[in-house]
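W.,

You were right to be curious about this one. When I first looked at the sequence I had no strong expectations either way, so I just let the prediction run and decided to look at it fresh. Below is the sequence, 192 residues in total, followed by the output.
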Amino acid sequence: MFAPSADEMYGVPQLTFVEVSGLSDSLCGEFRPGHFRGVATVVNKLFNIVQPDSAYFGEKDAQQLAVIRRMVDDLNMPVGVVPVATVRDADGLAMSSRNRRLSPEERRAAPALYQALLAARSAIQRGGIEPAAVKDAALAVLLGFPQLRVEYLEIVDDATQQPVERIDGPVRVSLAAWLGQTRLIDNIFAVR
């Protein structure tokens, strides 16, 4: 196993960075400026050191997956980026180390995120083409959970991670919300 220390990865002040413009600016990037620049830079470094044939990234962070895919394509890296389906608890909550930070009450409310995503996907599958109406279907689920503070709920093109004006093909419904001091993200792929 290759598990470099911070000193091995960042022994000298970093002057070079990798940034995937456009993909890094919306959704999580809007609320966490510089986050995806850091992700792309460290993944690029790891790919250069390890030189893997394949790298596996979870779909739970669909925006990160899109950033890495685009970086690999744009820089002609000989790495196959393989998406891995989101692993969920029995109640639908996407597994994450952040879930441990939730109080028992917050943990009981957390599956509402997935329920909202399922409502959005159902609206799309029933022929919904207007993003606002699909978002309303998801938000209606979340109204029953006042402790949830939605940071964003967007319907985006999977490759560009940009909001769509009309749902006329495959999309990803992406959601970030706060429960107490814990920020949770989730998403679901939907086809009309």
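Here's what jumped out at me. The CA atoms of residues 36 and 64 lie 7 Å apart. And, maybe more interesting for your project: The first strand starts at residue 54 and ends at 58.

Coffee later to discuss?

I.
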